[in-house]
Amino acid sequence: MAMGFAGVSADSESLFDAGSRVYAEEFEVVPDEGSTEVPGISVAQDENGSAGGSEDVSSIEGLIEVVEEHSDSSGASGGDKESGKDKKAKKLIVGFKTKGCISSIHFEMGQKPSLAQLTAQFPTQLEVYFQEEKKSETVSVTWSSYDDDYSTTDRNYYFFTPKADTDKYAMQELNLQTEMPYIEVIKDAVSFDMIESAPPKVNEKEVLRYCTQVLRFNKAAACGVLANVYCESGFRTNAIGDNGTSVGICQWHNSRWTNLRAFTPDEWQTLPGQLRFMRKELYTGYQDTLKYLHSVSDDAQGAYDAAYYWCMHYEMPDRTQSRSITRGYLAKNVYWERYKDIDLESIFTDENETGGDS
């Protein structure tokens, strides 16, 4: 697919169109679905850990730089040509005229553009508001990838935020969701045939159906789960990650993998078995996550909040907070846009309820 700007919408053929293939963050495919041998298990992960506790989503460290205004009030002596003159204080940026996702760039797996090629398509100027000024002004900006270094990582989803010249401007702390512009970059990934595993598109719909009909999540909460499952496994039941210590659609790690096998010995490699295990965990060890997802609003913000919380408290990957943010935007900008106006009953199959224990 040619690289270019394309807004993400519910009816767009973007990340998950019917003919597309899916590839997730860091995993390999189990070569033999029928094998009963489990790769080596190392130190057990704390199932009930909270990855450092709840984070304040509205305060995003690393995205802003607050610089003290200062002046030289001392009469400098010697050869200082600025002697006796006040240094000009930096102008304080308090807002942007344009907020939210301003552009979406897609690329195919194996055709990732260089950082220079990518940023060449980004706007070089934005309109901003300065403190105590009513009219917006245009300033030059550069863009940087939040969380991961774009050039040295291979992720499915990146987003970039603007920075102004720090020699001229300071920036007030701003809420990334509601007050900052950003650009998202999405890999339109390619997968391959899997042994005894439904295609990712089918699995995506089945996870959505399970979340709404069995777990009784609203559409937004379900979109939050979809964003996480996509990032963890690309909806592959036979995905293996973390050097052979994590498995399945949610990449259950170490002791949680052991618990999955014990819970459903004959179906732990299947989607129905893994969904039933997810439900069992939510009701026995992750009740706070279950309760929170039942509470989110059924809108774009609810999709963001659900994905963020699920990543923080159920998935708990490394770089938990920053990945929670990126998954929140994936839920809000891709999955919510895809499903918000669709009658879910019209896209579900007539199969029996997955996991008859519900």
What does this structure look like?
This protein has 358 residues and is an alpha+beta fold. It folds into two domains: 28-57 and 194-346, Orthogonal Bundle (Lysozyme), CATH 1.10.530.10; 91-188, no CATH class. Helix content is 29%, strand content 16%. It has helices spanning 115-119, 200-214, 219-233, 255-263, 271-284, 287-295, 300-315, 320-339, and strands at 28-29, 91-96, 100-108, 125-130, 137-145, 157-164, 169-171, 181-188, 239-241, 246-247, 252-253. The strands form two sheets. Strands 3-8-6-5-4-2-7 form a seven-stranded mixed beta sheet. A four-stranded antiparallel beta sheet has the order 1-9-10-11, with helices on one face. A hairpin with a 6-residue loop joins strand 4 and strand 5 (137-145). It starts with 27 loop residues before the first strand and ends in a 19-residue tail after the last helix.
Observed structural traits:
358 residues, alpha+beta, seven-stranded mixed sheet, 16% strand, disordered N terminus
List strands and helices in order, with pairings:
Layout lengths: L27 E2 L61 E6 L3 E9 L6 H5 L5 E6 L6 E9 L11 E8 L4 E3 L9 E8 L11 H15 L4 H15 L5 E3 L4 E2 L4 E2 L1 H9 L7 H14 L2 H9 L4 H16 L4 H20 L19
Parallel strand pairs: 2-7, 3-8
Antiparallel strand pairs: 1-9, 2-4, 4-5, 5-6, 6-8, 9-10, 10-11
Helix pairs in contact: 2-3, 3-7, 3-8, 5-6, 6-7, 7-8
